[in-house]
Amino acid sequence: MRKLKWTIACLIFVTILLSHSGCGRDNPTDFSNDRNLNLVETPSALTPASAPTQLPIQTPEPKETPQPAQETNDEIPFLWLVTDPHGQTMYVFGTFHVGLPEFFPLPLELMRAFRRSDLVAMEMPPTAATLVDWDIQSALEDYMSEEQIQELRRQAMAIFVEYEGYLLEMIGLTLEDLHDFNLEALDSILNQMAGAKIGASQRYGMEPFFTRQAGYMHIPVRYIENYVEVLERLRDISAPLRIRQLELSLNRGISERAEIFKTQLEAWRRGDEQALLDLSVNLVFEGLGDDELIEELRYVLFTSRDPQMADMVSKFMAEGRKVFFMVGAGHLLVENSVIDLLVERGYEAVRIR
Asked: Model-level pTM?
């Protein structure tokens, strides 16, 4: 079997394995062909392979350019103003790693928060869910019986047969091509198809958009996690957990996956904390139905990462930087979230609505 190239996404929401288009810039820091920052536009994709790990530190231009007078989305998704005990402030923004074209233009208050900042900090580069070489078939399927493998493959192929034309049109694969892919790759392709069905893509996510806006305004961008390290952490997930996730996911057809995507995105856009938790994190945890597996996944996604994110907020504020801090919304909403940890340390966190 050839080494697979497929989309690996943060497992924060089990149904979100991001879809990509093949287009993009050869140099993601070259914004010469884009429109002016004044126009809050639908962002285009960045080129995954050439994304830098950190842009050079530059002094931002001392100007603030207003957005044009046009209708915007009034709801502010997940934005907090955080104040440390010394009165230093920064914005913390909970993102969704994929988006829809109708998310733009963004709310004025969100754009103002961005423009008041002199540094943008992101969870990881916008290309974190890029195509990578990760041949994991033996690592997982060695723990499965042949009957189990064949049953799950049968379930997946039944969905692909139903959407054969769509598979070729949207993903560029035939049914014959799928014989070269392992089960987790097949599940990833199904998620790509579901995202494409409703028009969702990483190209409409917040990270690519604000990376471009930072480039326009010469605002430096830093990344608070190394994607290679995160990928290694995901690779260390136990086989029982990965198998259980796969079983749950392959029970869902394209339409059900697409509906989950859509309702998650709508909840994020409304800034509805409980709905987003119920449709994503809680849905995943409850589906596992095993306390040990739940705790393992919680650790991989949140417990092992959120304290480090809170540390970075403290570090930036101690430096006196006006930071626009972007992480996945789940890190700000779960129990013992980044926001909770900051409040425990004596910071004030006020949600901006």
From this structure: 0.78
